[in-house]
Every structure is written in structure tokens, then in C-alpha cells.
Amino acid sequence: MRKEIPIVSLLLLLPVCCHGADWKNFRADAKRMEERVSELSKFGANPEGGVSRVAFSDADVAGRKYIRTLMENAGLKVRIDAAGNIIGRREGRDPNLPVILFGSHLDSVPHGGNYDGDVGVLGALECIEILNEQHYVTSHSLEVVVFSDEEGGLTGSHAAAGELSPAALQLKSHSGKTIGEGIRFIGGDPDHLEAAKRNPSEILAYLELHIEQGGILEAEKINIGVVEGIVGINEWEVTVLGFPNHSGTTPMNQRKDALVAAARLVEAINQIAKNTPGRQVATVGKIAAEPGAPNVIPGKVVMTLEIRDLEKSKIDLVFEKIKGAANKIAADTGTTISLAALDVTAVPAPTDPRLRKVIQEAATGLGLTTKLMPSGAGHDAQDIARIAPIGMIFVPSIGGISHSPKEFTTASDMANGASVLLQSVLRVDEKGL
Ligand SMILES: [Zn+2]
Questions:
Q1: Would you place residue 99 in the very low, low, confident or very high pLDDT band (cuts 50, 70, 90)?
Q2: pTM
Q3: Which of 38, 59, 356, 409 is deepest in the core (most CB within 10 A)?
Q4: Phi/psi at 209 (nearest 5 deg)?
């Protein structure tokens, strides 16, 4: 006769939590992510098909409310910190362990698209949905974060790193409100920003899923970008002084044309950035000639110079070469050229090598191809790098288009990214760093 096992004993055999479940099979749901991207894109929808959901606008508030509801429905304990960051917490089994933090931002640039930031937030939420469906409880508590005002200057992550200055609160945001007013508008408390500062010991790791915003992954048919670091961005104001004079009576060999000198320098900057070995980029994005009349030789030109790279020493090297070229052009054209630092404090933020390895293994485990790459754009992760180890996962941007209503990432790429995020979180949870 078959021995009956009492049902109670059977229940005892079941794992109390699903730590033993084969989490390596957990996958994000592409359809749900696509539906949610489409739902989120209604908040601040612009006529071109993207969103103009600038931070602290009514659309921002509406988008945040939508996400907050999704978070609450997924069982997260949600709070808004003093900087207006939304933080949704899922308790782990061991309350003494530091949290694993992951997320991105919901605000857009004016006339932006539907994927920048949104994919990271919805991807983070997707991880929670899958864990809920699988009844899987992690050892570490998990926190999904939506940083406030990323596009206006990384406001929320600055505050989390304890670096949002009182002066920054006075700056006007795209919404028309000052950043201080804006933080209050979305439920934060600009008078007590120190409360938003995170203690490094609280955070085991920060992971961010984001669209690439460039065209490398798509062109090379690669699924996942493992981000090496976020580039440092240094800016200068370049002033070229010549001599304004009559365009009809001044012979060509007697001119001190500031715009001709500036044009040569623009070309030299491009050539130096292109011909120096490495992946640095240098750009002149703004230029103005004075007095700005058709019949006057330009006497003064003011333009910007921006250099980005993963290594500060490379930025410095490229800048020195540009300075050398500027001196030569000034001598050749009878002008003077000065380069004044506007912002040379933004240092590169490398990702944590251990997290790069975790992301790499997670992607490989899912059968996805990867490429190690820098992030040429700024992200909240660069601030969090100062208080916690960071890792970033990129998914392809079709056509390399971003900060545009034409921004697009396929549903399967979004789901790939969210699956890699989930698998990375679970690897860190199980093995630590
Ligand atoms: Zn972004």
C-alpha cells in the first residue's frame, strides 16, 4: 500500500521563499513593456509623436503619478524623498543587508522621445513584476528609483549624492519654475535636501538600463552595450579677436578677420579629435560673429568648445593640442585667440568592473551579444558612482536617434535590456559583489 504523505509535510517541503527557484529562466515581458511605454507616452505627448515632459511640468507630475500607481500595484512601498525622487521598495529577506538600487528618469528634454529614461524606469518595474509572478524574494531589499529632473542637470541624483547646491535651486528649469520650486511642486522638500542624501553603506550597487542614444549597437547588430563609464564633459568659451573694418575698402592681405580664424580653428578641432587615437569627441556647437553685418569684416567671434572622453588625461591632451593649433592660427591670421574654461569639473565616471562582469555574464547567459562601450551622454549613474558601485546596460537606439520624437527602441530590445537588468540584480543578490 502506498504510504500517504500528510499534506502538511508536503507544504513544509516547499521552499519558504523561492531562493531555490531557477531564476536564470526569468525573462521580461516585451508586450507589457511596449504597452507601458505607449501608455507613458501619453503624458506630455507632442504633435511629432514624442513627449515634451520636462521636469516639474504638469505632464511630469502626471507621468510620475502613472508610474507611482504601477509601483504601488506591484506591491512596492513608495516614498518621495526631499529631492522629489520616487523610491519604491521591495523588502528582502535580510533587513540588515544594503539595498540593490536600480532605475532611471521620467522627465524628457523639450521635444523629446518616448524611450530616454522611460525604458530604464519601466525595465526596473518589469523586474519587480517578474519577481512577483515568480514569487521570488531576494535576500537584499530592492529599490526602484525614478530620479527627478535628470535632463535639467541631474537634480535628483545630485541630491542623492549630497551634491545639490543651494545655488542650483535658484536656477530656472524648462518648466519656468526654479529647481527649488519644481522640487516642491513634485512633492519634495527643497528646504531639507540633506534628507535625500544616501549613505554609501546603504547601497550595495546601482544599476541603470538606458537606451544607447547612439547608433553603434544597431549598426554592429549587438543586443546589449555594457557601459565602461560615463564620459567627462569639459566646456570652454573660445574668443577670437581680429579687427572690424570695411569689407569693400580693406584689401584681402590687410585683414584681421576673426571669423576666418575661427573657421580654421573649427576645422582644426575636428581634425585633432578625429586623428588622435582613441574615442574622444570634440565639438564647436555655438558660434557668433560681431558686429554681424554683411559689409563689415568680423572683428570678434565667440564660440564654444566641448570635449568628452572616458579619461580626463585624454580630454587634457586633446585640449592641449587644440590650444597649440589656436596659437598657430592666431599668428597666421593676425588675431588673438583665448580659451576660457566654462565647466571643466565634470570628470569621467567609470562603471564598477565587477558590475560590468555581472552584466556581461547575465547577457551571455540569456544568449545575447554584448559590446563594452563608453556612454557619451550624461546619466544619473555618474552621480551615484560617487556613493556606490554603478553598472549600466544599453539597448540599441534605432538609427542612433535620441532627444528627438523619432527616438525608437524595439520591444524585444527593451525586454532584452530588462532581462539583463533582472539577471544582473539576481546575480548581485545571490553572490554579492
Ligand atoms: Zn536619459
A1: very high
A2: 0.86
A3: 409
A4: -95, 135
